[in-house]
Design goal:
By secondary structure, this protein is α/β, with parallel strands linked by helices. The chain has 6 helices and 10 strands, in the order βββααβαββαβαβαββ.
């Protein structure tokens, strides 16, 4: 068994005591991921996706994304081009950023598939996306190839709790479409591997990299 992210040999596997989901934890990059037998099909993932009712009229969701903008975008990029990677059916983040004067494009494997492969961006964002990656290194390498030199990668995903009991009770891992979970150690490994620099983290759900 190899790690889903770094391809190191997996030595630690555990089973959820009630859900019976099998997880693997990597000692090299720190990532935890579900066994591939628990990965949803594309149809299952899209059906789960469409259960989300996030739109510009939902005040709570707008506040949620506004915090991300205030912490993960505005301090680093005052203007320029952005790509919202995994924008969903209603790209609320794009609406909010356009109001602030940013030029933003959207990509989503289900809803916004048109993308110029030759374009690079000043910043690529992925909010509540990377936990869905079935092949995370492939996706992170794509992001790396499409962000400009000295550009930024801003991610939002809950970092997993370190205590085993808390992880087993953690709601995030119960979502059938969430298959891979990250820690600060994972972000350090990823930065070292791809030549990125961590320039901000709230140690909870937001991490920002600079491509050097």
């Amino acid at each position: 068994m190899k790690c889903i992210l770094c391809e190191s040999h997996i030595k630690h596997t555990f089973e959820h005591p009630t859900l019976k989901t099998i997880f693997h934890q990597c000692e090299t990059c720190g990532v935890i991921f579900k066994d591939a037998s628990y990965f949803p099909s594309l149809d299952m993932e899209k059906a789960r996706y469409e259960e989300h009712n996030n739109d510009i009229n939902q005040e709570g969701y707008v506040q949620f994304l506004t915090r991300f903008i205030d912490e993960g975008i505005k301090p680093f990029l005052k203007e320029g081009t952005l790509l919202d990677f995994g924008s969903g059916p209603n790209p609320v983040l794009a609406v909010l950023l356009r109001r602030l004067g940013y030029k933003i494009s959207c990509y989503d494997p289900f809803y916004h598939q048109k993308l110029n492969e030759d374009t690079s961006y000043d910043m690529i964002t992925a909010t509540e996306v990377v936990e869905h990656f079935h092949d995370p290194m492939k996706e992170f390498k794509w992001i790396d190839e499409h962000v400009k030199q000295k550009g930024y990668i801003s991610l939002m995903t809950l970092f997993y709790p370190k205590e085993n009991a808390k992880f087993l009770n953690w709601y995030y891992q119960r979502d059938l479409s969430h298959v891979v979970f990250y820690s600060p150690e994972t972000w350090m490994w990823l930065a070292h591997t791809l030549g990125w620099e961590i320039i901000y983290s709230d140690d909870y759900r937001i991490v920002v990299f600079k491509k050097n």
